[in-house]
Amino acid sequence: MTYVGEIEPAYGPYRRLQLGAARRTMLQLAFVITALMAVVGAVQGGILGVLSTVVAAVIVCAVIGYPGLELLIWVNWRRARPSTGAPARYEVGPTVSFVTDDTRMDFQLSALRSARAFRDGWFLQFRGNSVALVVPRAAFSYEDAIAIDALLLREVKLAGKR
Fold this sequence. Notes:
By secondary structure, this protein is of the alpha+beta class. The chain is 56% helix and 23% strand. The chain has a domain at 3-9 and 85-161: Pleckstrin-homology domain (PH domain)/Phosphotyrosine-binding domain (PTB) (PH-domain like). It contains two helices and seven strands.
């Protein structure tokens, strides 16, 4: 069965989807920055050096990291937003499709490498492709979203066995 949903392009849902998809990466990056600064602090000043550099790393990540991500999301929205304002259509079934007036992207569900569900949508990565697709949950009805969750869970379990 193919589930079809449409959503009007708007900055709010786009921002929530991008933040949800980037959350894990941002936390990993913040951890690496903090660990590197702790090593530098240990080399330079022992335990007090570690504590002061860890505090500095947390401040740097909080002051630069999150606003930087917000700016990047806003710039991408300004660059990629549709000029027509026409709704985007998502189709999830044997193929996963993203369709607008001038764009169509199709991916075979059997090529799904990983799927991550979060509150506002699904982050899908496919084998043999560097492209990931973020599918908004708001484009589908509640019942369709539950069915898509089950479908993606089944496909990811199958993908691990291939």
